[in-house]
Amino acid sequence: MNAMSFLVSTLFDLYLMVVILRFWLQLVKADFYNPFSQFVVKATQPIVAPMRRVIPSIGSIDTASLVLALIVVIVKMLLLTFIAGAGIDIATLLLFSVVSVLKNAGVLLFWMLLIRAVLSWFNQGNNPIIMIMSQLTDPILAPIRKIIPAIGGLDLSVLVLFIAMNFINILFSQYIPFWAMI
Question: Minimal CA–CA distance to 72: which of 51, 99, 101, 107?
Fold first, then answer.
């Protein structure tokens, strides 16, 4: 990978994470007055707002943010293939975009859970970032907590979710050829 490919990939992946966060924040109805939420909204609003005029939401699903996430991956892949001087198949590009958004959402969930777990050891008060991470991850952890309660104050739900996510990642990499490359 050359320097330009690295830069393009990194910038687009970071923005993709912000777009996925916007979708996720709206899906769980998180506190949009939180400073972290405000950053996510401000970073995506110039593109999402005009798209919402054309692409309506379906219930609580913000389809404009989902379409933006797919567009970010498509543009990234087009730029990377242009830099590499390679050709690209449209069907493969669309499939790769959907898989890439799903994989990046999983990676984002993994890092949020890990950061939340580590910060829980040191957090002494109400931190806005930890509060928003709790709002984002608690709906995913709640069903696991119903089955496996805390043992002596130790919450094992994050560990169980990590194992399940790793299982899904390995399973998909067996059946989707380019899953592991993303």
Answer: 101
SS3 151: strand
Q: What is the pTM of this model?
A: 0.88
Distance CA 147, CA 42 (A): 38
pLDDT value for 40: 94
CA 173 – CA 15 distance, rounded (Å): 24
- Render pLDDT for 155-167 as a digit per residue (tens, 0 to 9): 889 999 999 999 9
Angle between helices 35-54 and 63-84 (to 10 degrees): 90
Residues of the chain above pLDDT 70, percent: 96
Cβ pair 26, 65 in contact under 8 A: yes
Cα–Cα–Cα angle for 30, 100, 73, nearest 5°?
Answer: 90
Long-range CB contacts (< 8 A, 24+ apart) of 136-145?
Answer: 136/21, 136/24, 136/25, 136/28, 136/30, 136/112, 137/109, 137/112, 137/113, 139/28, 140/109
3-state secondary structure of 61: strand
